[in-house]
Amino acid sequence: MADVKKSNITALLFIIIFFFGAYSHSTAQSRNYQASFKQLEDMVDAVKEQKAEVSHWSLYAREISYPFKRPEDFYEQAGHFKESLPEYKWQSITKEQGTYQLTGYRIIPNTKAKESVSFFAYPQNNQYKTYIIYEVQGNEWNRKSWRFNSREIATKLSKIFNGKETIFSCVNGKYSGKMKAGLLKRTEQVLAHFSAEKVEQDNEKTFVSVSAYNRYWKDSIETNQRKMNLQVALRTVGNASTITIGTPIITSEY
Fold first, then answer.
1. Which residue, 158, 221, 239, 250, could crosslink 231 as a Cys pair with Cβ 3.0–4.6 Å?
2. Residue 182 — very low, low, confident or very high, per pLDDT cuts 50/70/90?
């Protein structure tokens, strides 16, 4: 249990550091979303190649937006969001500890995948910093359905963001029983699937986490002055085993 908490906390710290630029940076994100969509498909393939069943997948995008001077400016922009995305079910604007938030969501038609978009504003230096988060996620993977809906998702991303968003993808898989091969061996097999070079590694008896770099992928962040854009984690608890793959970092619990 302590190992589980440790890995979840590690993932959260990675996300916080990356989002707010404390120790890492990302290369410029192009508006060719097909490259990011292909990465998600590749990660699904890697999970299936390891004889695991996809249990959850997600694509997550974030962008720092324009600052505001007044709370009224946030409400005005929130109104524009609602008008441009009428297909979403919008929740009421909330304010907590000075931070304003607007969130809308919907279930993608003919699927069980859920989309959400959130708009935030928080006070800093006599103004309001803002950022936008988009996420689509599901517990079942259907390649045909994904490719059909990805065209609409690309249109949605172009409408929501201004071309400077950072995109994360993550896939979780589970095994029907305990892995027969060792965790480290399977991790190396996944890295070989992506032609990725190992950058950092956390190797324990029931848990392996590896950060790696795939030179064929455009985006990357830095860790200890080295580039990385792929994380792989495998865990065994009792007779259950799981695999999680994310780019540029894992954004879910594992």
1. 250
2. confident
Residue holding tokens 């292909």? 38
CATH of 66-161, one of 2.60.120, 2.30.30, 1.10.287, 3.30.310: 3.30.310
**Residues contacting residue 126 through CB under 8 Å, at least 6 positions apart:** none
For the residues of 44-79, what is the DSSP string, one character each?
HHHHHHTT-EEEEEEEEEEEE---BSSHHHHHHHHH
Q: What is the pTM of this model?
A: 0.84
Tokens at 33, concatenated: 């979303």
Only one residue has tokens 């965790």, namely 183
- For the chain, report the end-to-end CA distance as a whole number of angstroms: 12
Domain 1-30+38-56+172-254 matching CATH 3.30.360.40: the answer reads yes
